[in-house]
Amino acid sequence: KTVLVLNGPNLNTLGWREKNVYGTMSLAEIERNLTALAERLGVEVRCFQSNHEGALIDEIHRARETADGIVMNPGAFTHYSYAIRDAIAAVELPAIEVHLSNVYKREPFRHVSVTAPVMLGVIAGLGPIGYELALKAIVAQLDNVKG
Ligand code: DQA
């Protein structure tokens, strides 16, 4: 089984971006930890980050053939990208949305997720561990559904 781990705009700057909000762990470290966890869980992860909406959508489409589930932090696209929402809906794979920060205690524009309704679930506010919890949940879901 393969899980696609997608990160949207500005998440390549983790480590130096607004450390008080997002912590100090880089995306490379997060991806390394996820790869190690995946090995323990007996699945593969493929990690992809882009600052471009279309590139993320292309990758979601590719997942239809090449992945069994998706863990995604859409970054600010969460709040307004109907195109990413439609792509997730189109591929019909279990997907979990992750936010490092607790978006609900931040600015009002972050309280709305247009992508959440097409996700299996959402994890917010737990930092990098959120990605690991999402990966575990996707694997549990795949085990339940496909045995
Ligand atoms: C984020 C929250 C978004 O509001 C923001 O635009 C991000 C990161 C998070 O991980 O907390 O880029 O998705």
Automatic annotation (TrEMBL):
The keyword DNA-binding does not apply. One of its GO terms (biological process) is quinate catabolic process. It catalyses: 3-dehydroquinate = 3-dehydroshikimate + H2O. Pathway: Metabolic intermediate biosynthesis; chorismate biosynthesis; chorismate from D-erythrose 4-phosphate and phosphoenolpyruvate: step 3/7. It comes from the Bacteria. The record marks R17 as: Transition state stabilizer. The active site is at Y22, H99. Its EC number is 4.2.1.10. Substrate binds at N73, H79, D86, L100, S101, R110. Keywords: Amino-acid biosynthesis, Aromatic amino acid biosynthesis, Lyase. The keyword S-adenosyl-L-methionine does not apply. One of its GO terms (molecular function) is 3-dehydroquinate dehydratase activity. Belongs to the type-II 3-dehydroquinase family. Catalyzes a trans-dehydration via an enolate intermediate. PANTHER family: CATABOLIC 3-DEHYDROQUINASE. Homododecamer. This is 3-dehydroquinate dehydratase.
